[in-house]
Hints:
Blueprint: E1 2-5, E2 8-11, H1 19-28, H2 38-46, E3 49-55, E4 58-67, E5 72-80, H3 89-98, E6 108-111, H4 117-121
Amino acid sequence: MEIRENDYIFSDDQQLIDLLYVHQYLSKEAYWSADIPLSVVKKSINNSLCFGIYRDNKQVGFARWITDKATFAYLCDVFVDQAHRGAGLSKKLMSFMIFHPDLQGLRRYMLATRDAHGLYEQFGFRSLENADQFMAISVKDVYKKQ
């Protein structure tokens, strides 16, 4: 599935993903995945529903859903290259992804963010209700140990 807007292509075709570009961003620029190994990024892409933004045959954005495509989806690793920010690409990517056929009728969609609440609220995300019912195991600096 793909859409074109202005000079950009939004696609769910995993064959288009530039693994080295995504790894470089996630390992060097993203606060949530510093030092993530290339092998982990590759495995995460292979086991997720992924989306890319492309311009002039180069990748300029990425996001992925961890999902069973039936009841649950967790959005993660969302980014737009610094040089392409401010053009509404994050909003367009979210619109493209949230209406993807594989993500319809799910019971729960989740994500975690430190700084993009305003973006995600536009698509219906809210702070957790009954947050005391949710639990997690968080391994700090997991990639620094490998």
